[in-house]
Design brief:
The protein is mainly α. Helices cover 65% and strands 7% of the residues. Helix 2 (51-61) packs across helix 6 and helix 5 packs antiparallel against helix 6. The radius of gyration is 26 Å and the shape is globular.
Length: 313
C-alpha cells in the first residue's frame, strides 16, 4: 500500500514515534552519554554528530524505492529486538560499552520490521547499518588498527619524501629528514581520516542509485585514498618543519594540514565517483518505437489510434 509523506501523516503516527523515542532515550541514556562523550573528547569520532542526520539522508535519497507498508503488525521483527536485548545483557556482564551501543542496530531494524514490514526493513537496512559509524571502536581494535596505519603512513611518507628529493629514512614510526626527526604518533596514524572516509564512502554508496558497480568502486577507493591523504599530510608537515623552526609555526602547520586533508580526501572521493560515472555510463534501454524515432523514423497514427506504417521524418 502507498505510504504518505511525513507532511500528511496523521497525529497517531507522530505519537507513536514520540513514544518510541522516549523509551529509547530512557533505556539507552548511559550508552548515549558514552557515545556523545567520545564524539566530544576523541577527534577520531567527531563525525559521530553527523551520523544520525546522514542516516536520515540515506532514507530520503532512496525514498522513491520505498516498498510500502505491510498490513498489520509483523511480529517476526521481535526476533531482532530479542537479539538486541541479549546483546545488552552480554555487554553488562562483559563491561563492553560498544556492544551495548551496537545493539541499537538490531533494535531499530526490529522495530521497523514490526511496524512497517520486512520489505520496509530491508529497504531501511543501509541507513540502519550506517549508524554503526556513530559507535566508537573497541579499544583493542582501535589500537591495533592505529598501529598498522602508523607503520603504513611512515613507510609511504618516507617514499614520497625520497621521490621529492629529501634524504628521508624510516626508523620504526619515526621519519628522519636529515637531522629533523618527524615522529608519527598515534594521533597522526590517519585513523580519523580512515574512519571518516569510510563513513563517507558508505553514505555515498548507500545513497547512490546507479548500481552495485558504483557502490563497490566508491567503497574500495576509500581505503587507498585515506592512506594516500594521510601520507601526503605527513610529507607537507615534513617540509613545513624544514622551513620553520618555531614551535608555534609548526603547531599551526600540523593543525592546518589536518583540516586541509579532510577536504582533500572528500575531493578525491568525488573525483573517483565522477570519473567512474563517465567511464561506465549505463546503456539506455529503448523500446522498438524509440529506436525507430531516434533513427529518423516515426509512426503515423491512424484515425482509430492504431499504429500505421512507419515513414521517414
Amino acid at each position: 500500500m502507498p505510504f504518505p509523506p511525513p507532511s500528511k501523516w496523521p497525529a497517531v503516527y507522530w505519537q507513536v514515534i514520540a513514544a518510541l523515542a522516549v523509551v529509547f532515550i530512557y533505556s539507552y541514556w548511559p550508552t548515549v552519554q558514552w557515545m556523545v562523550g567520545s564524539w566530544i573528547s576523541q577527534p577520531d569520532y567527531s563525525h559521530g554528530w553527523a551520523v544520525p542526520f546522514l542516516a536520515g539522508m540515506i532514507c530520503y535519497y532512496r525514498s522513491e524505492s520505498f516498498p510500502g507498508v505491510a498490513r498489520g503488525t509483523s511480529w517476526s521483527g521481535l526476533s531482532l529486538i530479542g537479539l538486541a536485548i541479549v546483546m545488552r545483557l552480554a555487554s553488562r556482564f562483559t563491561y563492553t560499552d560498544f556492544l551495548d551501543a551496537w545493539s541499537i542496530l538490531p533494535l531499530v531494524a526490529g522495530a521497523v520490521w514490526c511496524l512497517l514490514g520486512i520489505r520496509a526493513m530491508w529497504w531501511a537496512l543501509p541507513a540502519i547499518g550506517f549508524l554503526f559509524f556513530a559507535v566508537p571502536m573497541p579499544y583493542r581494535a582501535e589500537t591495533m588498527l592505529s598501529w598498522q596505519l602508523q607503520g603504513v603512513a611512515t613507510d609511504l611518507s618516507t617514499i614520497f619524501l625520497r621521490v621529492l628529493g629529501q634524504p628521508a629514512v624510516a626508523e620504526g614510526h619515526v621519519v628522519w629528514i636529515g637531522n629533523e626527526r618527524l615522529s608519527i604518533e598515534q594521533a597522526c596514524s590517519g585513523l580519523r581520516i580512515f574512519v571518516g572516509m569510510g563513513a563517507f564512502a558508505v553514505f555515498w554508496a548507500a545513497a547512490n542509485v546507479r548500481g552495485w558497480s558504483d557502490k563497490i568502486v566508491i567503497l574500495v577507493a576509500a581505503i587507498p585514498a585515506a592512506i594516500f591523504v594521510n601520507s601526503a599530510r605527513i610529507v607537507l608537515i615534513g617540509f613545513g618543519y624544514l622551513m620553520f623552526e618555531s614551535e608555534s609555526a609548526r603547531r599551526l602547520i600540523h593543525d592546518l594540514s589536518g583540516i586541509l586533508m579532510i577536504f582533500a580526501s572528500f575531493a578525491i572521493m568525488w573525483l573517483v565517483s565522477v570519473y567512474w560515472q563517465r567511464l561506465y555510463a549505463p546503456v539506455k534501454k529503448l523500446t522498438a518505437k524509440e529506436i525507430l524515432r531516434e533513427s529518423g523514423f516515426n509512426y503515423a497514427q491512424s484515425s482509430d489510434g492504431a499504429s500505421g506504417i512507419p515513414h521517414q521524418s
